[in-house]
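Hey,

The postdoc asked me to send both predictions to you directly instead of through the lab channel. I've kept everything plain text so nothing gets mangled by the mail client. Protein one:
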Amino acid sequence: MSTAIAEKTCTPCRGGIPPLTADEATVLHQQTPDWELADDAHRLRRTFRLANFRAALDFVTRVGELAETEGHHPEITFGWGFATVSLQTKKIKGLHENDFIMAAKIDRIAGGG
């Protein structure tokens, strides 16, 4: 994974701009290859495998703290031994560079980069 995207900070998205095209998303996806480009390249998703429920809860808490810091909030589901994180910029109903920034930073939390 390139560290460049993980070094960036999310910028406020006020809407009124188009989401990334599938081609643009594919280029950025190269920096977060463990994530799935889902919903016709309108969403990023990854399931993290963790040791148990406590580890999943701790991971979700750390991702939540990052989300508050970055001002960019994913959807998260979790249970015993897993957490699934889904990223999309809701104001544009698709992907924005911010989603890839968050994915790269979440990978770091998980120890993936």
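Protein two:
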Amino acid sequence: MTVGLTDMDSGKTRAAFRLLKQMALDLGVEQLSMGMTADVEIAVEEGSTLVRVGTALFGERPHSI
């Protein structure tokens, strides 16, 4: 499971997801959980089989300090 980079650079996020997918293939891992609401399209394009989309479903939540 991985969360994409938070700097919103889609190129870097895509590269990170691509690397994780290759690592999963090398290890024989069949399920790949990567991505969240903000980068769901990239995650799916790069092979994610599970995506966390809580913000899309429930909206923004307050951040605790």
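Summary for protein two, as requested: The longest strand covers residues 33-36.

Thanks,
C.
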